[in-house]
């Protein structure tokens, strides 16, 4: 108990952390300040909600994906699209000419093998 009391924050720290209210300000002013702060935050939130971007804007900025699939299936759709892309790239790489073919066709020089 003594160690807890020794590390107890002082009154100024408690006021700075908003644990207790500053006693030097009248309670009516504290209530008014608190009410004004609450109204300011409320107004900011309402403004942000009213001006939030539409789904189309989010899709245009690549924040959301353009899809008609339910959210539960979006991960599977994304995995399928990735798999298709990987397959396509593998096909393209499979048909890629070798370095010897490029040398024979005079695209690469012999030393750059």
In brief, what are we looking at here?
With 113 residues, this protein is mostly helical. The chain folds into two domains: 1-52, no CATH class; 67-113.
Question: Mind explaining what this structure looks like?
Answer:
The chain has 113 residues and is an all-alpha fold. The protein is built from six helices and no strands. The chain folds into two domains: 52 residues, no CATH class; 47 residues. The longest helix has 24 residues. The N and C termini lie far apart (78 Å). The model has no long low-confidence stretch (mean pLDDT 88). InterPro entries: Myocardin-like (IPR043451), RPEL_repeat (IPR004018).
Number of strands: 0
Largest sheet: none
The total count of helices amounts to: 6
Unreliable spans:
none
Q: Any idea how many domains?
A: 2
Shape: elongated
Helix content: 55-70%
The average pLDDT is: 88
Counting helices, strands and paired strands, the structural category is: mainly alpha
